[in-house]
User: Fold Gamma-glutamyl phosphate reductase from Spinactinospora alkalitolerans.
Amino acid sequence: MTDIERDVRGVAERAKDAAADLAPLNRAVKDGALLAAADALVERAEEIVKANAEDVARARENGTSEAMIDRLTLTTERIAAIADAVREVAELPDPVGEVIRGKTLPNGLELRQIRVPLGVIGIIYEGRPNVTVDAAALCLKSGNAALLRGSSSAYSSNTVIVDVLRGALEGTEVPADAVQLVPGAGRESAQALMRARGLVDVLIPRGGGSLIQTVVNESTVPVIETGEGNCHVYVDEAADLDKALAIAVNAKTQRCSVCNTAETLLVHAGIAERFLPPLLTSLRDLGVTVHGDDRVRPFDDAVVPATEADWTTEYLSLDLAVKVVDSLDDAVAHIREYSTAHTEAIVTDSQSAARRFVSRVDSAAVMVNASTRFTDGGEFGFGAEIGISTQKLHARGPMGLPEMTSTKYVVTGDGHVR
Amino acid sequence: MTDIERDVRGVAERAKDAAADLAPLNRAVKDGALLAAADALVERAEEIVKANAEDVARARENGTSEAMIDRLTLTTERIAAIADAVREVAELPDPVGEVIRGKTLPNGLELRQIRVPLGVIGIIYEGRPNVTVDAAALCLKSGNAALLRGSSSAYSSNTVIVDVLRGALEGTEVPADAVQLVPGAGRESAQALMRARGLVDVLIPRGGGSLIQTVVNESTVPVIETGEGNCHVYVDEAADLDKALAIAVNAKTQRCSVCNTAETLLVHAGIAERFLPPLLTSLRDLGVTVHGDDRVRPFDDAVVPATEADWTTEYLSLDLAVKVVDSLDDAVAHIREYSTAHTEAIVTDSQSAARRFVSRVDSAAVMVNASTRFTDGGEFGFGAEIGISTQKLHARGPMGLPEMTSTKYVVTGDGHVR
Assistant:
């Protein structure tokens, strides 16, 4: 075992102990700790900004893009907003202790299925230091210890932020070890975390596709896959074309860098001649590069020929793959082959078409006459999300606080035997 | 890729296609298929018995124990009982299509979270050929394609049983490829199944601890751990000793070969002198070998000294480890260290003791004044179970049909954009 492995297992063991103490704490205690953490972030904002400046300077030296530097940068205003988000988490209902099912069995045994924390949640994430606070707050509220493994590019910021959070916990009943930074910023520390099965209950990678695939392939700790979104909009033959245009444009352009933006548009052949000309004009005006198949290109010279790679790509940019399909079933078949099963939308006025699309498309969210951009914990009314799960086990779609819990059966008798 | 790997991936691909066709089928179609399968098992019972005789003969040649041979053996009566169990699965409610959550969002979007099948479920199991039918029936009812990978010792039986089931499906809308035996009975075929990520949605190992550990460690497909049960009964200082005696004896002896039987008894020091003498006498009369610590052995010469290994062993036999503890918290600490987090019981008349035990013990089921033997899908009223999950993600405790599903968000709008 290397030093880094030993260090990572050390923090994981302390996290496991902290999780045992954290699990039975009631809401008032946890909310008090969250509010103390929010206050401490504001009080010590200057320290955080100073540490962040080191990260930003290093990023600039390394030639990081301005967009990435903007994501990395913290100001006192941004820290105040992050602290407000923590206060909002405090206001959310506590999922722990909720009785999901309960009944009295024929023999008189009283059966209850109760939400309990998962235990220790490891979060592996990329550049944005606000994730450090968000993830810690959501874990704490749901009674879980957080092991935070951020990017090396934000290591100075994260170190101070976690120090601030732990300092705030020290005045409360919540053990400080419920929030810990995983030591080391290299590949080895992430790998040690992925191998800490038995100490860490679940790993949630937050970031780009390659990060997620690495964690999924290398982790022996159970993983919840999040966020990869090759999302589709299918415009059916029976679509209201005004709505279809608005939805397609919104799904691509309203915020193109996020996982629920549309990457491929499928257009039914029966309405292609009426729909594609105005659509392609709108997209061109908004700066979108369209990658079209043979049946799309004749409508606009600016359309770039689509290759096989375009159907699989999560652009996260102002690019859109467009394909003409002969039927709803062909659209479904395309989606089943290429989608990451995050979000797909159909635009149609046909009840039977909507019903068939919804039942055949196997994705975390299926939209009928609505933009893919609505797949979001905030939009769904969950208050906050730790990520959007694109897997089928445990949680699927936006993961709020209830998805950060497990359950326990409590069975009460009076000397019952079989 | 070896021939076996290619064959296993081939059946997995067909299972994935079958799962897509199976998912939208309604309950009447699935129940019809289950009843046809039950009838076919009875009609072709003699074929099955004949194939089973080959497995039994081979087992005898290999010197298999009579207990194992009994588990392996099928008779026309046993097949009739297995067919009846399939008919009972048909009578259970269909979990697919259940709306778990639903609301109209402030912007008018209609949000529903709906149960959908997981897709393709791989089951890796040991000797008993009845599991082939049970698992197939539960998968089919919950809309999932089943990839069955039984033991080589039951390969002839399983081959004919799956042929019978597939034959029955051919007269229905359910695709025959929804039920398939994984080809090959060697280690390589199991490994190929464990590596079929992207084709298989979840693997459920059913069997002993070493089988489960192998699957957990080697699988890249998500796994649900089932069944390993190092279960504890803690007799508190405030226990009603008659109830404690009945529960301890029942938990150990009513059926000692199953996962929810008790393996360790923890006795509070304050009642040890009154409780242990009658308990040890009862256990001895029932043929139980007690492995006791230093504070247990003085009460009975027949007590064998307990070693560290006894605290970790799932005996599945008439053996019981017994330890005297000084407090409820010591009992909880022992459980947290050694338990497999399946089921633990406390016997106490103290509300505060029960409350503390329930909140501190982190197991799938916690019993208060009831035998550990009640952790069971049938006892809980779930009708049937695919296994008892001892992990925290996705499902915990007895897994009925709802635990064999995922969910999908369906969001309906009228041209909604952000």
About this structure: Residues 3-226+394-412 of chain B form a domain with the Aldehyde Dehydrogenase; Chain A, domain 1 fold (CATH 3.40.605.10). Chain B has two domains: 3-226+394-412, 231-378.
